[in-house]
Design a protein that fits this description.
By secondary structure, the protein is α/β, with parallel strands linked by helices. It is built from 19 helices and seven strands.
Length: 414
């Protein structure tokens, strides 16, 4: 077995996530040997995918500290970086879920997509729209927020309504903004957006904005983030940004602007913390393997040592390789009450290609050409899609996608 490359992890992640959304309950061996649904129930579907993070205790503690500071009225910026598949999104989601935030804390998350045609500020717009909808669901607080936001926005309310149409439901009709020269128009937009976000983050109602995949953010979004972070009126704002440190494919629409934008963010005066996620240690990988097999870590260590060599401690690859070993028969279900059994010699004999990403890409290449074309269309729709939307794009009835479902069942990816 050969070591894994991080550079192809993005493709592996896209393949896995897309197919998992389409048909997560059935599949077959990625090595080409078909498994029947009964076999799958016994051998793959019961392989535990733990919700616990392994080897990220210090990073979770840092996230918790940032949130505690936020509740105390201290705004801050938390940047989470690392290669594809290292668990950036999982770290943020797990950390926020574990904190059991009170209802007075608004939390909104959105992710930039690798779409050069995406509207400017796409993820930021989505996140702020989520916050507005949360406020609109708080019947007894609408009047308070309407007054607060109108006072903060003044004559520029329509500037924000143009960005977030749902805001109009909250603050009501707004006067048309004055016509300005392009540079003045841009400055007004940045100034107003900074004030708007600050108004959403008073000390008694902290705001957490999570923006994932910053490496795919447009140049406008990166500029806007600096304006938001630099607004002195932001009293209880936690900005969390996650981005990859390995090359993104397709390339970022803003080119190489992210490092400069991050440097600008760190100069805004906010308290800045940077969590750089590194590969899992052998101990952490073994903890993940043992949890998946529901076995004692001492027993699973020899298997984990092999997996560590092949995956280089990338948690996404660890999970996918474990799934693949089950499909290949190197890990088998003995009986529901007897747990799992693995054959180290069989693991060593497997030809898994150059890396886990290649293994998953090979699973795609074995799909029928028609199914591959449908997956290509689905990938253009974003990181997730459903069959109803796919049928609409294809201008075919949903029932016509049945073959697509059956074809994707031949993949043991989740």
């Amino acid at each position: 077995m050969r070591k894994s490359s991080y550079l192809a992890a993005e493709d592996a992640s896209t393949i896995s996530h897309t197919i998992a959304e389409v048909e997560p309950e059935h599949g077959a061996g990625v090595f080409g040997r078909r498994l029947s649904p009964p076999d799958l129930d016994d051998r793959r579907s019961r392989l535990t995918i733990p919700q616990t993070l392994f080897g990220r205790e210090s990073e979770l503690a840092a996230l918790e500290s940032s949130v505690e500071g936020l509740v105390g009225g201290e705004s801050s910026l938390l940047l989470v970086s690392g290669p594809s598949g290292c668990g950036k999104s999982s770290l943020i989601a797990t950390g926020l879920q574990r904190l059991r935030l009170s209802g007075r804390v608004h939390v909104a998350a959105a992710s930039y997509e690798p779409d050069p045609q995406a509207a400017p500020y796409s993820a930021l717009r989505q996140a702020l729209s989520t916050v507005v909808r949360q406020i609109l669901a708080e019947d007894d607080a609408i009047a308070h927020w309407r007054q607060r936001l109108n006072h903060s926005l003044g004559a520029n309310g329509q500037v924000m309504v143009d960005l977030i149409p749902e805001l109009g439901w909250l603050i009501g009709p707004q006067p048309a903004p004055a016509e300005l020269a392009p540079e003045a128009h841009r400055n007004r937009f940045l100034f107003t957006l900074g004030h708007f976000v600050a108004a959403l983050a008073p000390p008694d109602h902290p705001l957490i904005l999570v923006l994932d995949n910053l490496h795919w953010a447009d140049a406008g979004s990166l500029e806007v983030l600096a304006a938001i972070a630099g607004d002195p009126q932001a009293r209880a704002l936690l900005l969390i940004g996650a981005y990859r440190t390995d090359p993104a494919s397709p390339p970022a629409p803003a080119g190489d602007a992210l490092p400069a934008a991050l440097a600008t963010l760190e100069e805004t005066g906010l308290s800045v913390q940077h969590l750089a996620l590194t590969p899992l240690s052998l101990c952490a990988t073994n903890g993940l393997v043992a949890a998946m097999l529901r076995d004692d870590p001492h027993a699973t260590l020899p298997l984990a040592e092999r997996i560590q060599i092949y995956t280089l401690g990338n948690p996404f690859f660890v999970v996918e390789l474990m799934q693949a070993l089950v499909s290949a028969g190197a890990i088998t279900r003995v009986a529901p009450e007897a747990g799992w059994r693995w054959d180290l010699a069989a693991v060593d004999r497997l030809d898994l290609g150059d890396d886990v990403a290649e293994l998953l890409a090979g699973a795609l290449r074995r799909l029928p050409e028609a199914t591959q074309r449908l997956l290509t269309v689905g990938a253009l729709m974003g990181s997730t899609f459903d069959l109803a939307t796919l049928a609409q794009v294809q201008q075919t009835p949903v029932e016509a996608q049945t073959g697509f479902q059956h074809s994707t069942r031949d993949l043991a990816i989740a």
